[in-house]
Amino acid sequence: MPVISHVTCPVCGDFCDDIEVTVKNNVVTDVKYACAVGAARFLNYSNHRQTRPLMRKNGELVECSLNEAIQRSAEILADASYPILFGWSSTSCEATRVGLELAEEIGAVIDNTSTICHGPSILSIQDIGISSCTLGQLRHRADLVFYWGSNPWSAHPRHIERYTMFTEGRFRESAWKRYVARIGGILTRKRLKRAVNLLLGRRLPPQPEGGQGLPYTLLRKERKMVVADVRRTRTAEAADYFIQVEPNKDYELLQAFRMLIRDEQLDVEEVAGIPVGVLEEVADVMIGCELGVLFFGLGLTMSGGKHRNIDAALSLVRDLNQYTKFLIMPMRGHFNVTGANVVSTWQTGYPFAVDLSQGYPQYNPGETSVIDILRRGESDAALVVASDPVAHFPREAAQNLAKNPLVVIDPEPTPTSLMADVVIPSAFVGIEAEGTAYRMDHVPLPLKKIAEPPKTCLSDEEILQRILLEVRKMRGS
Amino acid sequence: MPKLKVLLLTGRTIDQGVGRERGKLSEEYMKSVAIGEIDPDDMKRLGISDNNNVRVSTDFGTVVVRAVKSKSTPHPSIIFIPYGPWASLLMNSETRGTGMPTLKGISAEVEPAPEESVMTVAELLKKHFKKG
Predict the structure, then answer these.
(1) Distances (CA, A) of A179 to A104, A289, A298
(2) Of B24, B83, B124, which is closest to A414 when you measure between CB atoms?
(3) Please, are residues A390 and A396 in contact by the beta-carbon 8 Å criterion?
């Protein structure tokens, strides 16, 4: 039974490259080292796939040939005056490159999922700049790991294990044993309390939290983790210290840290619900580390303030570099959202929200970004590749997307494919098709082919090339 | 019926990730996404218990989801709904010039909805998109 090693996982931005997959008769029978989500992808991908192209006739989606689907898709896109090409974060860089060529050919707006993910981070990085690095550097050297508005335990389940706290680095020991001991201590205390309550027949009052200074682990010269979030998530449970920020107050808190790091006084007792005394101690820990990193997630980009929150986070890290070495990295969501930005930048100069309707690239998020175009009802057709905007866009934008002719290229049925006028099922990239993708730290890695796709399913890249060819034939170009 | 003013947060959960990989039209996906995680004290205020249905409303839409006792407590007056078609019905598409709609920290209202059921993906699409 062939076992394929070093398979990359086509799910989240961590893009783990150590997965071991067993394939028997073209079926994945076992997966090792993947997280729950990655394992679910490899083991279930073939159970809920689309294999035949579909076309809407008399209001119903009915099966058709691949040639008919390609022809109809080309007609829809070539006839449109302001089409949108959206998705790209869950496909290969090679497919995105063809998509950009198609966008240029038909004068479309091409946008990727970072527009409703880390788009504000990109805007801010363009303004402020970023001191960043690869995840390997952090694995070996970081002694302070800060997660802000990010819950890797759920969204990037192996991030802590592979790159930060629970990995054995060359210069930093794993904090795994310490974590297990701490959780053991917490459980023992809970059991003791329950036993005492039962014996005394009454409830002991809960111990007051805070006011006792930071835990001693934050002051030791070893790896430590701080989490700032609005809820006590599983990631927060694993942290040495958790800062519970009031919703929509991240900007204030980040700016307060900037002031404290510059030794300025705060004339208030608390910021975002956190006593200033605590903030001062955390600021000291930040300054005192040897190499710190701030990972930030959508808790910053999607809350009030948006790119201004990221401005404050990037500036905080810049300020910290006057005292120590500090780095910052966005926790990118889809496995190739970084690649979509990179390829778009190679080809057009801009990472997302690129409007090619005038024959040259224009970039003005807020105007040329897909949500804004849909909200204004300006587009008249769309092509969606490997994405599900009907499920994830705000209702008004999703409704405007679905009311116009819609072509979907996706291996599996989704709410978006159910709203489409043409559905072209593709091979699962990273399982049934090769390619290249960029990990969240901009490291390109190969996507492997470990199984054959159904004969009716081409790769995203091939489907796009065929649509492009048809469009060019129609336009005589 | 008691009503509670809350802030609505959206985000990823591990169950949502696994449910998505079982298929966007699967029961597992719906079970993991058509939910609202509520602080236990808020559930008491609303007079509901685990798995009761609640109606969540914002200025931009309304949807019925299954209430689930939150494990990320305490977070009084905050409801968490994982990303998905149900949460998206409550969102404003205004981006204020950034390209990004506000998907976290939105004012909302929660109330018990014992008589109402949670829509499936097919029902939701039929009602709101009138296609398919």
Answers:
(1) 52, 20, 26
(2) B24
(3) no
Per-residue pLDDT of chain A (477 residues; tens, 9 = 90+): 689 999 999 999 999 999 999 999 999 999 999 999 999 999 999 999 999 999 999 999 999 999 999 999 999 999 999 999 999 999 999 999 999 999 999 999 999 999 999 999 999 999 999 999 999 999 999 999 999 999 999 999 999 999 999 999 999 999 999 889 888 888 898 888 888 888 877 666 655 454 456 787 777 788 999 999 999 999 999 999 999 999 999 999 999 999 999 999 999 999 999 999 999 999 999 999 999 999 999 999 999 899 999 999 999 999 999 999 999 999 999 999 999 999 999 999 999 999 999 999 999 999 999 999 999 999 999 999 999 999 999 999 999 999 999 999 999 999 999 999 999 999 999 999 999 999 999 999 999 999 999 999 999 999 999 999 999 999 987
* DSSP codes of every residue in A193-236: HHHHHHHHTSPPPPPPPSSS-S-GGGGSSS-EEEEEESS--HHH
Q: Where are chain A's structural domains?
A: 50-117+335-436+449-475, 120-330
Chain B stretch 38-77, residues whose beta carbon is closer than 8 A to a beta carbon of chain A = 60-61, 70, 72-75
Contact B103 A116 (CB under 8 A): yes
Instruction: Say whether A93 sits in a helix, a strand or coil.
Output: helix
Quick check: A419 and B104 CB within 8 A?
Answer: no
As a whole number of angstroms, the distance between CA A382 and CA A73 comes to 10
With 0-12 / 13-18 / 19 or more C-beta atoms within 10 angstroms meaning exposed / middle / buried, residue B126 is middle
Architecture field, domain A50-117+335-436+449-475: 3-Layer(aba) Sandwich (3.40)
Query: How many angstroms separate the CA atoms of A55 and A50, rounded?
Result: 13
> Which domains, from first to last, does chain B contain?
4-129 (2.40.40.20)
Chain B residue closest in CA terms to A391: B85
Sheet strand arrangement including A224-229: A241-244, A224-229, A144-148, A291-296, A325-330
Residue A333 sits at the vertex; the CA angle it makes with A234 and A138, to the nearest 5 degrees, is: 70
Query: Looking at domain A120-330, which CATH architecture does it have?
Result: 3-Layer(aba) Sandwich (3.40)
B121 touches chain A (CB under 8 A): yes
What is the Cα A109 distance to its own chain's centre? 22
Helix (H) or strand (E) holding A78: helix A66-79
Cβ–Cβ under 8 Å, residues B24 and A413: yes
- What HEC string does chain B produce? CCCEEEEEEEECCHHHHHHHHCCCCCHHHHHHHCEEEECHHHHHHHCCCCCCEEEEEECCEEEEEEEEECCCCCCCCEEEEECCHHHHCCCCCCCCCCCCCCCCCEEEEEEECCCCCCCCHHHHHHHHHCCC
Residues contacting residue A19 through CB under 8 Å, at least 6 positions apart: A6, A7, A8, A9, A31, A32, A33, A34, A38, A42
The distance of A273 to chain B (nearest Cα, Å) reads: 13
Which residue is it, tokens 């009031």? A246
Which ipTM was obtained for this model? 0.96
- Which residue of B9, B98, B123, B128 to mutate against A (max A Cβ within 10 Å)? B98
Nearest to A119 among B75, B80, B100 (CB): B100
Report the gap between the CA of A463 and the closest CA in chain B (Å).
Answer: 23
